[in-house]
Amino acid sequence: MEFNPLSPAEKEIIENKGTEAPHSGEYDNFFEKGTFVCRKCNAPLYRSEDKFHSRCGWPSFDQEIKGAVKRIPDADGHRIEIQCKNCGGHLGHVFEGEHFTEKNTRHCVNSLSMKFVPEQ
What we know:
By secondary structure, the protein is mainly beta. The protein is 6% helix and 33% strand.
């Protein structure tokens, strides 16, 4: 499988499981219509209608595109990491039980893990 070239900052997040600083990502306060895709492999991950403003400092979604995201226990033993199911790129973490939306789920995703494709 061929992947997109990544900047050093993108590699740190996607391949080394880093985290961008809160409120620093381009998609934190971004609410245009379209689809968010994996920056590494272009697989569709999230729809804009599932994005909400959680005020946590990172883009938040209450649902992924079906089959797009893999959940695994984080190395810290407390959180659940989310990865692109297609390429294994690190996206962020998922939290449940916070009551931000009716779905009661928050995918907390690094902006550098995604690219936005506007609705046509």
